[in-house]
Design a protein that fits this description.
- This protein has about 160 residues and is mainly α.
- Helices cover about 70% and strands about 0% of the residues.
- It contains 4 helices and no strands.
- The protein is elongated, with a radius of gyration of 18 Å.
- It starts with 9 loop residues before the first helix and ends in an 8-residue tail after the last helix.
- Its main location: cytoplasm.
- This is Hemerythrin domain-containing protein.
Length: about 160
């Protein structure tokens, strides 16, 4: 499969999201949390240290795993079956979760001063911010695809309903 999202087929888009984004987030978050903890420990007391970042990332590991499982076990199979009455309820829950994820991203940006490295940052700190940028970019595109493409196709009354 190419990296282009199959935006006109809701069932295919659910599979794309699982393989492209869910799998990737599961790979990204644990090392990010570990790297953040290392930076916080090694640079404790530095004015620029993103104190609390590892806690945010560890919390996101749990929250996102629950969110992705709800999609994989409940919502996406329902979408693949053609949706139906009541599908707007799990979609509303997923949209609310996305709002929570966006708030966590805002907290990451605040703690890292918009991913701005201090002068002379070590290799781990530099790699952390580069990988955080990749994660945030992936997560924001993941949420955009679901909120703006997949969910509208699957909601009752939408003429683009899959």
């Amino acid at each position: 499969m190419s990296d282009a999202a199959p935006i006109h087929d809701a069932a295919e888009l659910t599979r794309y999201i699982e393989t492209r984004y869910h799998a990737r987030h599961r790979e990204q978050l644990p090392p990010l949390a570990a790297m953040a903890a290392k930076v916080e420990e090694v640079h404790f007391g530095d004015d620029h240290v993103p104190d609390g970042l590892s806690d945010v990332l560890r919390r996101m590991i749990g929250e996102m795993e629950v969110h992705m499982k709800k999609e994989e076990l409940i919502l996406f199979p329902a979408i693949r079956r053609g949706g139906g009455p009541g599908i707007e309820n799990p979609i509303a829950v997923m949209r609310a979760d996305h709002d929570d994820h966006a708030a966590e991203v805002a907290e990451i940006r605040r703690l890292t001063r918009e991913l701005t490295l201090p002068e002379g940052a070590c290799g781990t700190w530099t790699a952390l911010y580069a990988r955080l940028n990749e994660f945030i970019t992936d997560l924001e595109e993941h949420m955009r695809l679901e909120n703006d493409v997949l969910f509208p196709q699957s909601e009752p009354g939408n003429t683009a309903h899959a």
